Amino acid sequence: MILNDDTSRTGELPMTDWSRDLITHSGFKFHVRPARPDDVVALGAFFARVTPEDLRFRFLSSMKTVDQDRLKSMTSVDHRQTESFLAVEPSNGAIVATAMLACDPALEVGDVAISVSADRKNLGISWELLNHITRYAVAKGVKRLQSLESRSNGSAIKLEKELGFTAEPYLGDSTLMLLQKRLDQQTSGS
Ligand SMILES: CC(C)(COP(=O)(O)OP(=O)(O)OC[C@H]1O[C@@H](n2cnc3c(N)ncnc32)[C@H](O)[C@@H]1OP(=O)(O)O)[C@@H](O)C(=O)NCCC(=O)NCCS
């Protein structure tokens, strides 16, 4: 879940192009790029292919569908405090995953959240997206990434630990875990 989402949303293009062609360990190729306001319909179609349990894990609420306001907030971002990456399939442009980074105003801490469509899981997409967002955050000078996860979301917690996050109980809600990764000593390597 994203904690820092109090940004002004201008829909301006990012200063630096953070679009990339990526390939996963399984050989799956995809393109990652910042979301644009005209992605809102395609993003809605993407979330229709996300399982109800994964929606709950992504948004930490029991929503059955992702409403228009939420879709707009994920496609019209300021590209400074908040970035919203879309992973798209090169053959047809369909969105297969989203990865958001929402930072505090000082750009010191970034909350990361990923979601993958049900038919594209276990291909290595989230691994590559988390690495992409880490390189992006390092380049922006972000000092720490964090992600709030349901304790029952074993897949996400395991994946994040494999990518260098540490897990601790989230104070105030025993159903949640706080995953964190320090970036101070990393280089962007993008
Ligand atoms: C959790 C979630 C994001 C994982 O997405 P995914 O794209 O299926 O994950 P990946 O394919 O990248 O990783 C799956 C496995 O392949 C492994 N893998 C992927 N790329 C790898 C690589 N380059 N080298 C070695 N192992 C790799 C991962 O370690 C993981 O193994 P594990 O299950 O033993 O931990 C997905 O299930 C999801 O959308 N969940 C709901 C939303 C959610 O939980 N969001 C919170 C995350 S911030």
Automatic annotation (TrEMBL):
InterPro entries: Acyl_CoA_acyltransferase, GNAT_dom
Annotated Pfam families: Acetyltransf_1 (PF00583)
Transmembrane regions listed in the UniProt entry: none
N-acetyltransferase domain ranges (all copies): 30-184
Protein name: N-acetyltransferase domain-containing protein
Organism: Devosia psychrophila
